[in-house]
# Entry
Amino acid sequence: MEKSQKLSKIYLSVTKGAIHTLLALFILGMIANLYIEIPAEGNAWGWVFTHSGVIASHAVLGTLLVLVSVASLVLAILNHRVSWIAASALGLIFTAGAAFFGASFVSADSELSSLLMAFGFLGALVSYASAVFQTKAVKGITV
# Structure
């Protein structure tokens, strides 16, 4: 297998991993949203990591997703594929935005932050899915 095909397969694996991680984050986020009430006294980070394994897991997994998003972008750049670079750059922007607004939500319990975190999730999911599914047209790469 030549180097470019290896890089392409690694890119697709990492990007699919980002999609799966996003889905796990969605599930954890919905459980937290429906069944856990964050204290309204302001910055609740201490409470999250001592009282809520679901939200703590969500925060840790979300932080790891930011790193996976960076890896996806680096691999897209190494592959010299403009469509993958665009999709991964957007995925990183949306992921970073979701992380920022998630942190803002825990700090200030703002409904707008929760909504913007959800939009970040959706944007990242669409970005990464577009990169993976448009690959079917590329000869020699299996999805």
Observations:
- The helical segments are 3-35, 45-51, 53-79, 82-108, 111-133.
- The longest helix spans residues 3-35.
- The mean pLDDT is 90.
